[in-house]
Design a protein that fits this description.
InterPro entries: Adaptor_Cbl_N_dom_sf, MLKL-like_MCAfunc, NACHT_NTPase, NPHP3-like_N, P-loop_NTPase. Residues 1-40 are annotated as: Disordered. Residues 1-12 have a biased composition (Basic residues). Keywords: Coiled coil, Repeat. The chain has 421 residues and is an alpha/beta fold. The chain is built from 15 helices and six strands. The strands form two sheets. A four-stranded parallel sheet has the order 3-6-5-4, with helices on both faces. It has a two-stranded antiparallel ribbon with strand order 1-2. It is elongated.
Length: 421
């Protein structure tokens, strides 16, 4: 009995060693091979690095540039290949560090392009690659990187895959190959980062600027088409149709213009609706015109000058859509809000009542502006020249405008008319 017990104890270590040896079939799971024996910390590090590269490659799904996407894929393939090399862990670790540094440089450099691509309409993302191809230097830089990584991948293909019996025989050969891979990757990173004194960040920044400009131009075209559905009247103070109303002699009406300027631009203004009335020929239209010219450029304004001699300028139903069109073309923030409002408004019908027009095309977009906002002036001149005053539509229009002025603290409503109106 005692000898049997001794024999059992003496065989226990051998049994433990045999349980850790690779199975003959070679089908042990990757996770098991990464975390066994003395090599497990390095294996785990290599595995994590490869997984991170896979994530980086996934991120290129919103990077519509074939050359850069291929570079990320090549880096992932390199890490996967190096992970299968069992011997020369120190050399493998050095190569991995170089690949990680190159991958990080690529990710950092392309983040600006990735962000611009995300903002673009999916149908327009091909513009990214077209814009990059327009830069000869950047195109050469990306193509050079891709070619260098292809050559490095060819070297990595000569590494011997992980086998429990092969580490000793191929250690020296693999060490040399890993050293060459390390040097080639470092050289690729250096060449990509800067050539001829030109940093890749500068080249990519230029591409991002072009992309932003292209996207801005595209949105301007889209917004223009939407805003044209408002069918605005040519009734602003800039129109040649109002030229005869702009004949205020220089140096005249100084006091009233100063008063009106202060009223229109004062942020904390308790009286936000002002009516200028007087008999025909007293120069009301000229005062309104002069005030709008004075505020142009520094303040947001919109105006409608009624004119009984022009069909589009004497229709009360054209007022709110015209004002919305002008505001959208005066301020970038308002443009996006009003374009959205126009789409929603006309989805409910082409011809709508004044209260729906004002609420959906003007009041609602204005309420969505961030506060505090500089005062916005809306000027209406010559109400007495409106021709379609059926069912007292002019009074309804004025009441709606005054209500908007009271509800929105940064809106100023300026109305010029004859006393009877």
């Amino acid at each position: 009995m005692p000898p049997r017990s001794s024999r059992s104890r003496s065989h226990t270590p051998n049994k433990s060693i045999n349980s850790q040896a690779p199975r003959k079939s070679g089908r042990s799971s990757p996770s098991a091979s990464r975390f066994t024996g003395n090599d497990s910390p390095v294996d785990a590090a290599l595995s994590i690095t490869r997984d991170a590269a896979g994530l980086a490659a996934d991120l290129t799904s919103d990077l519509p540039v074939s050359g850069l996407s291929q570079a990320f894929s090549l880096l992932e393939a390199l890490l996967t290949r190096i992970e299968t090399t069992r011997s020369n862990k120190e050399q493998a670790r050095d190569a991995v560090r170089s690949i990680k540094a190159l991958r990080a440089a690529l990710q950092a450099s392309t983040e600006g392009i990735r962000q611009e691509a995300r903002r673009m309409d999916p149908a327009e993302r091909h513009v990214v690659e077209q814009t990059i191809n327009a830069s000869d230097e950047l195109r050469r830089r990306i193509e050079g990187l891709r070619k260098q990584l292809n050559r490095v991948q060819h070297l990595a293909g000569r590494l011997h895959k992980r086998r429990w019996w092969s580490g000793f025989f191929y250690a020296k050969q693999d060490a040399e190959l890993l050293g060459r891979i390390n040097r080639r990757v470092r050289e690729a990173r250096k060449n990509f980062k800067i050539q001829g004194g030109i940093a890749v960040e500068s080249l990519l920044a230029e591409v991002c600027d072009r992309l932003r400009q292209n996207e801005h131009d595209r949105l301007v075209r889209v917004h223009h088409d939407v805003l044209q559905t408002l069918n605005p009247a040519d009734a602003s103070y800039r129109s040649d149709l109002t030229e005869e109303k702009s004949r205020l002699q220089p140096g005249t009406r100084k006091n009233i213009l100063e008063y009106l300027t202060q009223w229109a631009t004062l942020a904390d203004q308790p009286h936000r609706v002002l009516v200028l009335h007087g008999r025909a020929g007293m120069g009301k239209s000229s005062i309104v015109h002069a005030l709008l010219r004075r505020l142009a450029g520094d303040h947001i304004t919109a105006s409608f000058f009624f004119n009984r001699g022009v069909d589009e300028c004497r229709d009360a139903y054209r007022v709110f859509s015209t004002l919305a069109h002008q505001l959208a073309n005066t301020d970038e923030r308002l443009r996006a809000l009003i374009v959205e409002a126009v789409r929603g408004h006309f989805a409910k019908g082409r011809s709508q009542t004044l209260d729906h027009q004002l609420e959906e095309l003007l009041t609602r977009p204005l309420r969505r502006l961030p506060t505090p906002t500089l005062p916005i002036l809306i000027a209406i001149d010559g109400v007495d020249e409106c021709s379609n005053n059926i069912n007292d539509i002019v009074r309804c229009m004025l009441e709606l405008l005054c209500r908007a002025g009271h509800e929105i603290p940064f809106v100023r409503i300026f109305i010029a008319t004859r006393p009877e109106e």
